[in-house]
Amino acid sequence: MEEATCTYRTLEVLGPEHEFSLVNENLKALPIVDKVVKDFYGRIVNFVDFGDFSFGKELQLHVLEVKPNKPFKSPRNFEEKMHMAVLRLGELLQKRYGARLLGTGMHPTLRLEETTVWPHRHRQIYEAFSRIFNLKQHGWLNIQSFQLNIPYSDEEKAVQVHNLLANVCAYLPAVSASSPIYEGCFGDYADNRLYFYMENQKEIPSITGNVVPEYVYSFKQYRKDVIEKYSTDLAKAGAHQCILNKEWVNSRGVILRFERKAVEIRVMDEQECIKSDVALSCFIRALLRGLMAENAPLMPTRLLTEDFKSVIKHGLNAKVLHPNGPTARQVCEHFLKIAWENATVEEKDYLPLVQRRIEHGNLAEVIREKVQVRAQKTYLNEAIVDVYSKLLKSLIDNEPFF
Asked: Per-residue confidence at 5, pLDDT binned at 50, 70, 90?
């Protein structure tokens, strides 16, 4: 596995990947990503270059992935460019298909039979997974994450960033959860996406681990203990070679991406608008800057794993074992203090949004409360459609939802 050429300094840029459902005005999922790609490009490809950004397929046929063609040094530029991407795509989708883009971590009313797996180019990868796992479940067909890539300059920095993120990622869902509802009902978790994410590859536990990753000591050790381990387990289960020894098969909440020389964070739900995604990115980068400067001590992985399970269940109110606890809200307040002390001028413009989430509730809590209030006067499904219709507008207007 060759290393990527070093392009960026550690923490220099932010590389986002956004996942949105295609829906009609009544929130019905539209499994037409292949049609959109073909109509726009003339034939079916995985991704289409559209100026400053690209859009294309995910595993689910109703989910569109949107990502910039270059990572961002400036958070303000990140917000401007990716919001423009949403507007340009939104206009195209509305005009041609009567479709809209919907953020959040899960589609709230989707039934699994209403969508399917991408059936075109690279389908052999999904076919390989389907021989080992049941893809007809929410952990595959109904999850939308906001993934963030943070660059590293060398092996030492990669190890440091990875391990600090392992300490942080257990608590991030307390702020980033946005998946309170699925199949038209309230789920039992603050972050239902991550609950299903933990379960979706249980046949080969070494792929996901405990989501909170084990600590890394070197690239050689990581390849042997993580990538080689799950590849061996997959091979024993009869997996096709196309998914063996691949770094992207690793489904932990933080993974090393050697091909792009970055550490990728996977524990965050997609938010309701680009501004909110940028705010989470600024929070993480400023926090990392501070933790790296103070060479922060690492907590035992076992405790982080227990805290993670508590956080995805109870959100900001989760009881945790962190020394800055005893609740996830207090841990996040501690992290935010470090972020404020180490943020750039631009990053400080976005941290008040994170502060407001910590004080008044993550997006999952806000959605749950508003749907419950609306449901007192109408049917639950109508209440869900009503609230999520406002989230459609939040994405277009780039306005956080409170």
From this structure: low
Our separate counts of H helices and E strands in the chain read 16, 10
Side-chain-side CA neighbours of 43 within 13 Å: the count stands at 2
Q: What is the DSSP string of 368-390?
A: HHHHHHHHTTS-HHHHHHHHHHH
Distance CA(131)–CA(126), nearest Å, equals 9
Q: Which residue has the tokens 């780039």?
A: 398
User: Which domains can be identified in the chain, with CATH numbers?
Assistant: 15-395 (3.30.590.20)
Residues 151 and 10: beta-carbon distance below 8 Å: yes
Longest dimension (CA), the chain: 59
> 258, 380 in Cβ contact below 8 A?
no
Query: Considering Cα of 92, then 93, then 95, then 100, what sign does the dihedral take?
Result: negative
Instruction: Indicate left, alpha or beta for 398 from its phi (over 0: left) and psi (-120 to 50: alpha).
Output: left
pLDDT digits (tens, 9 = 90+) for 159-187: 999 999 999 999 999 999 999 999 999 99
Instruction: Say if CB 256 and CB 160 are below 8 A apart.
Output: no
| Backbone angle region of 184, left / alpha / beta, with phi > 0 → left and psi within -120 to 50 → alpha | left
362/191 Cα distance (integer angstroms): 10
| Contact present, 106 and 130 (Cβ < 8 Å) | no
**How do residues 377-393 score in pLDDT, each as one tens digit?**
999 999 999 999 999 99
Distance, CA of 295 to CA of 300 (rounded, Å) = 16
